[in-house]
Write a structure and sequence with these properties.
The chain is an alpha+beta fold. The protein has helices at 3-20, 24-31, 35-42, 50-60, 64-67, 195-213, 230-237, 286-296, 307-317, 322-334, 342-348, 369-375, 382-396, 414-422, 435-444, 482-492, 512-534, 544-565, 569-586, 595-615, 624-634; strands spanning 73-77, 84-94, 99-107, 112-115, 122-137, 140-144, 149-153, 158-175, 186-190, 219-224, 249-256, 259-266, 404-408, 427-431, 451-454, 468-474, 493-505, 636-648, 655-664. Strand 2 (84-94) and strand 3 (99-107) form a beta hairpin. The model is unreliable at 178-184 and 297-306 (pLDDT under 50).
């Protein structure tokens, strides 16, 4: 390729990769192309083949024409003498559903171009113009002569071979879109205009919400028509239940360009604290014990909605105790009252002069640590997981939380601050390798004498002279090679030492498709569980940009969730990647002026984590039973396990926030 072509190619690849939020390492893993080769490409150097360029397009999930935008012809040369072996010329793109791109391909005599599999849903039609070309995959290929054509699915590896002389063909690449009307969980109907039509729709919805409450994974109804009215529809569909009962569902309504829509998603419950409080009556302050009981029973005690108790909750969110303020916020939100913790606003409006020196492998290469530092408290069950972990330390630690322990991957220190409130006699070594997160950590724990911060990777940390009785990890186990992390913990712990892990885990999976599907439903549920409550609040005064982004995230995420529940995983992933791009573009760099703006920034963090999980960069979540199996293999026994928040599935071992306590088994040769 000439220098001008290389520079255009470099610019296109770098721009698309940046929009996808993908690092060079992540692109290398997805494309199978060496990071060094990709680095040369983005610097406008090297001599890439057409296959390399096409592999990059597939890895970035964009049409080939997006990569060669502005380039007339792409050529590949042989190593000897610089002879042209293949040439691809983009002709045109037309259509929207499906989108079709037309290329002219010329192959030198005796040469074969091997194309990697395109994403599912891509089809190719090859029309021979000159010479003879063998086209297709290994199991089904066809010899084409001028005027003949062949259509095949492009999601398998396929070849184009010139057998006699130079061969030229037109290649039509068809990107077939997904039709929501083919989804068994989605229905499209015209907006009802008569009582009889409403009655029919009501019957449909009644059946659907019962199905979802009893185990079907979701339902989406679109009522099309220019006069669609949400309030009228809600009244007709019976969502305003006057009998005092509550559906175990997340129910959403909204409007788009076609009309209005209704989405119904199952709501799962946990019972993580009720049987564990007896150990702690004498160990925790009375106010904190009361808050824990409050959080665990919030959805089962209608009396909590009395005005006097709401006043107590609001005052608790203003407390200087981080764990109490965050617990009170979550209890209030579960009942449709928004009292953000005062400490969140102080964090969100603080400028501590953090330096951002980000390498390709850092946590901050994929997750916006500035947003994370300010808004992580809004994550469902954030304080509950820390509280449960502290309970386990009190119950199972031989030194009752008063010895030296290591906190792994402390991040910016929010969870660690909560732990020190719950374990005030403990002395902690806080380990955090990421430059940006470590800067926040130092600033947040300044003045706490019982904390010593060390910027080092846990896997390379040297065992201290003093025995370590406890190792804690809150939200960080999935940022490591989990198996190695468990083995390292065993090496560092003293005899009978305890490893306590609080983290997010997926439903069980067996392949990448299962895993991506679980990721979408998992992260979407965290977001939608808070949105369902925010929907009923008065958002007057909210920034219009934040409110529009909130509405866009809600609608697109519900769509992705429905696609995932119908096993349309590739379409769901594409939907989430598009949402990731828009959220990153639209998030205002200034601090939010309203509660809705704070939540929008938390949602952006969850979407970042989801997309990083697709790429298996930084976010490397497993499932609970796999963690326990890895722990057994590393020499631990399970002492306690609780699911603190449920995202997917009704079993305690399904997706959500989990807390584990493991004890180190001693090796005996007898």
């Amino acid at each position: 390729m000439d220098n001008q072509t290389l520079q255009l190619l470099a610019c296109n690849i770098q721009e698309i990769r940046s929009k996808r939020g993908l690092t060079l390492s992540g692109l290398a893993q997805r494309s199978g192309i060496a990071k060094s080769t990709l680095s040369l490409l983005e610097r406008g150097q090297g001599n890439p083949t057409i296959e390399t360029v096409w592999a990059v397009a597939n890895a970035l999930d964009v049409p080939f024409s997006h990569i060669i935008n502005g380039i007339d012809t792409v050529q590949s040369f042989s190593g000897e003498g610089g002879e042209t072996r293949e040439e691809v010329r983009f002709i045109e793109r037309y259509g929207t559903d499906p989108q079709i791109e037309v290329y002219e391909m010329t192959i030198a005599e005796g040469h074969s171009r091997v194309s990697s599999a395109h994403p599912p849903g891509v089809f190719e039609r090859v029309i021979a113009l000159r010479g003879e070309m063998l086209v297709g995959n290994a199991a089904d290929s066809v010899l084409l002569r001028p005027g003949q054509s062949y259509t095949f699915a492009g999601d398998l590896k396929h070849t184009y071979s010139a057998l006699k002389g130079q061969s030229t063909a037109l290649v039509l690449v068809e990107y077939r879109g997904y039709s929501p009307q083919s989804d068994g969980h989605s229905l499209v109907r015209e907006y009802p205009r008569t009582p009889a039509e409403w009655e029919g729709i009501r019957s449909l919805v009644d059946r659907a919400i019962i199905d979802v409450a009893h185990g079907v994974t979701g339902f989406f109804l679109e009522l099309r028509g220019p006069q669609s009215d949400i309030n009228t529809a809600i009244n007709h569909l019976g969502f305003n239940n006057s009998a005092g009962f509550h559906w175990p569902l997340l129910i959403f309504t909204g409007k788009n360009e076609n009309g209005l829509w209704v989405a119904v998603i199952p709501k799962n419950h946990v019972n993580a604290f009720a049987t564990h409080l007896g150990h702690l009556d004498d160990a925790l302050p009375k106010a904190l014990l009361s808050a824990i009981r409050l959080a665990s029973t919030a959805e089962r005690m209608p009396g909590l909605l009395e005005e006097c108790l709401l006043n107590i909750l609001e005052s608790m969110t203003m407390a200087p105790t981080l764990v109490l303020a965050t617990l009170a916020f979550e209890v209030a939100l579960q009942h449709g009252h928004l009292f953000l913790p005062r400490l969140l606003w102080s964090q969100a409006r603080r400028d501590v002069g953090i330096k951002h020196d980000i390498s390709d492998e850092d946590f901050s290469s994929r997750i916006n640590v500035d947003l994370y530092a300010a808004f992580e408290l809004l994550h469902p069950a954030y304080a509950r997981q820390v509280t449960a972990l502290a309970q386990d330390v009190h119950v199972f630690d031989p030194q009752c939380g008063e010895g030296l322990f290591i906190d792994v991957g402390s991040g910016r220190g929010t969870a660690l601050l909560m732990l020190t409130e719950l374990l005030p006699e403990s002395r902690v070594i806080a380990l955090e390798p990421d430059d940006t997160a470590f800067s926040y950590l130092l600033d947040n724990v300044r003045g706490l004498a019982q904390l010593r911060c060390v910027q080092e990777n846990f896997l390379t940390f040297c065992k201290p002279d003093e025995p370590i009785s406890v190792i804690t990890s809150v939200g960080s186990s999935h940022h490591f090679n989990t198996a190695f992390m468990l083995q390292k913990a065993w090496q560092l712990l003293a005899e009978n030492g305890v490893l306590c892990i609080a983290d997010e885990f997926l439903s069980g999976f067996t392949d990448f498709d299962n895993r991506n599907n679980a990721l979408i439903r998992h992260h979407a549920t965290y977001i939608l569980s808070s949105m369902e409550k925010i929907d009923v609040l008065d958002n007057e005064g909210s920034d219009s940009t934040d409110l529009r982004l909130y509405q866009r995230i809600r609608e697109q995420l519900i769509h992705a969730f429905m696609l995932a529940t119908n096993n349309q995983t590739d379409a769901a992933v594409k939907c989430c990647r598009e949402l990731f791009e828009h959220a990153n573009q639209d998030i205002d760099s200034r601090r939010p002026s309203s509660s809705i703006g704070a939540f929008v920034r938390f949602y952006a963090l969850e979407i970042q984590a989801m997309v990083a999980g697709f790429d298996y960069e930084i976010e490397r979540k497993t499932y609970p039973k796999r963690l326990t199996s890895l722990a057994y293999g590393a020499g631990f026994e399970l002492l306690n396990h609780r699911r603190i928040f449920a995202t997917t599935g009704i079993d305690d071992w399904d997706g959500g926030t989990h807390v584990f306590a493991f004890r180190k088994r001693e090796v005996s040769l007898l």
